[in-house]
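Before our next group meeting I need something from you. Please put the record directly below this note.
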Amino acid sequence: MVYNFSRWKSRKVFDMGLTVSTGMLADYLEAGDDEAAEWIRNDIRVINEILKAHNLPAHEESETVPEMETQLEIDGCPYSAVHYLRRFYVHVVKDPAWVPTRVPSGEDASDDPVLDDEELVVGSHLLCHSDCEGYYVPLEFDEVLITEDLLEEAAGMIGSSYRLKSELELVAPKLGISLANGDLSPEEGARLNDEICSDEGEFVTEKHVWLMLYECARFSIEHKTLIVFN
């Protein structure tokens, strides 16, 4: 089954879970929800103040976007799931020859000592980002943006959709995900989705988070839309 990812995801609400959405302004405008659209526009104004302070161009959010087809059928994930992919990523970056191993039973992925590498974490847009709020914008820049006096209005951190996608591409082979020039084929997407939905195979949690983030990053870059964590 193929879902309209941008609209479907922005409608879902999960208890104690993370949803990752993109195309929300277009979604709200199409639905005639002016109040929600103004909320997003206000956050974009604050984001653009932060971008300007870092000598970056303003983000101009698309107000109309096409339907986004994706193979991902499971929306959202527990907040803790993000740390499984982050742990996996750090192991791959620190040791390209690493043989992937699962998080030991009864342990939390976020407690893996490999995640204590502060220098690596700060340099990564996958790692140096809140697991429950914040944004990615379709602009290229090196470090995740953190401006404390503005975070109360536009909660969280601001990463680059381009950098996020490139980091996801880097870790894909170790997860057994095949890409062609950075692109995920419909057939590979369907295979991943089947594995995620059946909860069979190795590193299903990591693959679920990977596919959710990859699809949002791809759409964000192509259609100039924010990625929103909430």
About this structure: The chain is about 45% helix and 10% strand.
